[in-house]
Structures are given as structure tokens and as C-alpha cells.
Amino acid sequence: MTPHTLSDAARLENGRPGAEPVVIGAARATLEELVQVARHRRPVVVDEAALARMKPSEEWLGAVMERMEAGEETAPIYSINTGFGSLAGRKAFDEPSDAAELSRRLVISNASGVGRYMDEEVVRATMFIRIVSLTQGYSGVRADIVKTLADMLNRGVHPAIPEFGSLGASGDLIPLAHIAIVMSRSHQGEDLELDSGEAFVDGAVVSGKAAMEHAGLERLPLGAKDGLALLNGTSFSCAQAALALYDAQNLLDTAQVTAAMSIEALMGFGDAFIDELHQARGQRGQIEVAARLRELLSGSGLVDGDAGTDPLRQPPQDAYSLRCIPQVFGPVKDTLDFATGIIDNEINAATDNPLIFPSLPASRTLKAVSGGNFHAEYVAFAADFISIVVTEIGNITERRLFRLDDGTLNRGLPDMLVASEQIGMDCGYMLPQYLAAALVSDCKTLAHPDSVDSIPTCANQEDHVSMANNAGRHTRQIVANIETVVAVELLMAAQALELRMNLPATAGAKPGPASLAALAFLRATASDDGRPIDHITQDVVLYPRLRKATELVHSGAVVAAVNAAIGAGAEGEGA
Q1: What is the pTM of this model?
Q2: Structure confidence by residue, pLDDT tens digits, 224-234
Q3: Residue 78 among the catalytic residues
Q4: Domain-embedded: residue 115
Q5: Which residues pair with 137 in a beta bridge?
């Protein structure tokens, strides 16, 4: 897993209008590029090499259509002159012009989703992945198909995609149809606005036709196979999993910072993070998390013992929620690394069907190969694994919140982390722990793997499906939930550190530079209502603080502030 190196402000700067575009097709697309395009509206351009790569399959398909127009007998070729799904073996027509009508009817019939409209970033990520997929060169589509998708991204045309409908095989048909219906039109007759789908313009839902006109873009008549090439793929499920993965990586980085703050606030033992201990097990993620925690705890006057110093208190053992952070976050890290490999490949995959390979031997005249690349089991597994491990970030983090609040467990801090003048008058941080418990419990339900479910469809032709869309929806919600749980730890650990430094027994002991940087950054930030996120001595309205703290976690700003402090310290030592 690559740590995020861009601050949120830097990411926004990169995504501003006029920013250097992401070039699609010159090299493998990256997760960082996807997020830049999806979340920060960075423009895109399709590389000429990618357009050239698309030509051979387009030309093969064009030759098939020319033979049909010349009156030559043409065998059924799936999605070109046949029906779909269980109708695949039936030749649908002999008239070549019907191929375009077949594409259009497919789009219209498949645009049948329901539910809330997906966030703009999911729509943009989906369109980005679809362009990348089609420019692999195996789909037989024209260049203006991918150019139109790119133009829609650059001019802010965001089709309204309902959340429900995809099974994750035969691709994300329904969600992708809600994109295709906006960008396409009938090749003949009247272009009905009522049949143009829906899209957002300035936050309002309008017809697809109106949205494209507002952006100055032409809606395309579809040709043979264009409809299925636009609809049949894993792009929508992959978009959700990719965005969740990116946020999960950042979440794990932030959770290590807040965990270190809690360890210091609870006067934890350093023995649990000694390198030799983790090398003895040999698990890479565990070793790396322990090393990061040692870095975060370096210079602390509150941690008891380290590799070169005996612990003063006996036995030098904390509760598992402190002691076993490397053993829990380590496998989280390794699993996210595994998911990263899957998602990186899927972003760059050709996932429609059939795929066209003109390079097949001359002995095979049918260059269109029917397979199952649209099956999103890879994405479903990745999303499910992300859901499981992010839920575990929340599970162990919530236990530290409970410990921080409990005066019998927090090693001398006041109950509910408030030094109230009248004990019992103030709830302090009692309720944020309730909130965290509710969110973690929600995640335990959502983390049930969707990939183990399958309901047959299409007259049992599609008798096993991945449910990757459900997995993607759930993992995005889980990541959002646990971002708030980690934000609660940021607030509570900051309060606890200040309380610890004001206790007579530890008044001379200071946290390490990393925790002090996180604390200073938080205190210098205004809450969502404009008031400071300051130390509380009596009850205050907490939800504006929780909202802002969650924003800080989501943006990566907490990690950036801590890394800057660590880097400055290292430079000072070098000087």
C-alpha cells in the first residue's frame, strides 16, 4: 500500500479547471488518477495510441457489417446480430441497419435502476474506468464513443445513476445503461427527450438531452455492438470498490496516528512494539505497522519502556486494543495491499463481451470471443475483504474509546474525559463512544460478504452472479462509518492527552512530536459551526466537532500534519 503523499489542498489544486489532464491509454491508469478525476474533476484526454489500439477490432466489426450490407449470409454473432443473455443463440435479424437499433433498444431496456442517485464521484469514476476499458482495444467501438465519454467528464455531464440494479454479472448492465442512455440517441426518427435518461446540471436533475445540450455535446447514434460494449463490464462495481479502497488506505494511515495518541494518553507500554517481537512472527504488515507505531511514539514521555529501556511498571502488558494493534492493523494492511492489486488490474481490464481479437489465427474466422470477463467476482471479493478489514479497524478503535472513557480503565483520567467542576453535571465524551458503538455495529451487519450470494437470472443462462455492486455499496458505507469512529478517537485522544499532561503525576511528561502535531493541528482547526475544536471542561454541542473531525480524517489532513512534523524533526536532527 502506498501512503498518500498529497494533502487535501494539493489534491484540490491538481483537480482545478486547467489542471494537467490525465492521459488515458498511454500507460496503465492508476488509482490516484481515478481519484483525481472522480473526486476533484481533473480533466482527461484520450491518447492517440489508445485510439489506434482500438482500430483493428473496429475494422473487423466494420467488415462484418459490410458483408451483411452486401447481402452475404452471416452467421449469428453474439451482440452484433443476435439477442442477449438466454437469447444469445438466436439470430435477431438479417437487415444490417437493425444492428444499430439493437444497440439502442438494449440501452433503453436496461436503464431500469431504482434507488437514490449515486454520488458524483462514483459516476465519474465509473466513466473513467469505462473509457480505460474500451481503449484496451478489444470492444470494436468507434473512437467517438470514448471521446464523448471523455468530453462528458471534462464538461461536467454526470448521468443520474440509481444505486440498485446490478448483479455484478453480466456486468453492471443497469447502472451503465443510465450512462449510455444520456450519451446516445436513436439512429433514426425523433430523438425523444423522455428517452434520454437523466443527468445533473448545477445540482438539479434534468433530462440527458438537456444536460448534453447544456454542455454543448452531441448525443451519438449507436452502431453494431456499441450498446453492449457500453453496458457489459465491471466499471460501476469497480468504481465503488476503488474509491472505498483509496479511502481505506488513508483511514488505516490515520487510525495508526490516533491509536498512537490513545496509547500515550493511556500511558501504554512500549514493549508491544519492539521490532524483534514482530520479526519473530515474520508477517510483513505487522512488522510495518509496528515500525510506524514506534515512529509515531518516538520521543514520548508517556510510554513506558522500549527496546533499550526496561519498563517501570509490572507486568508491562496493556489490554489487547493497545497491545495488539500491529497484529490487527498488520493484516488489515496486507489485505488492503492484496485488494490494491486486484483493483489496479480491474481498472485497466477489458470486461465486456464478446471481445474481438483480430490477431487470432486465420483458421478462425470468428474473431469475436464470448467469455465471462464481465463477471465481477474479483471486485466482489476485493470489496468484501475491504469491508471486513475496515470493520476491524473500527472494532479495535471503539474498544480504545471505551477504555478512554472508563475511569476504572484509563489509568487516572476523569470519567468520560471531562474534569467537571460538579461531577455528574457533564456527560463529556460519553455519547461519542455510543456513536462509535452504533457505527461499528452497523458495519458488522454490512460486512457480511455479498460475494457468497447469487440469484440466477436470464432464464438460468446467468446462473451465477457476483453481487459486486452490493459489495461495493456496502464497503463505501463501512469506510464512511469507520472514518467517523477514527474521528471520534482523534477528538477523545486529544482531550485525554491534555488531561494527562495536566495531572500532577504526569505534568512533566509530554507526548511525542507526532501526537503533539496531531493535537496542535486539531486545536488550530475550526469546527463545522466555526467555533474552535478546543479542550472541553463542560458539555458543549459535539456534532459540529464530529463533522469536522471526520472531514479531517477523510481528507488525509491528519496524516499530512503528522508526517510534516516527523519530517521536520528528522531534518533538524540531520542539521
Answers
A1: 0.94
A2: 999 999 999 99
A3: yes
A4: yes
A5: none
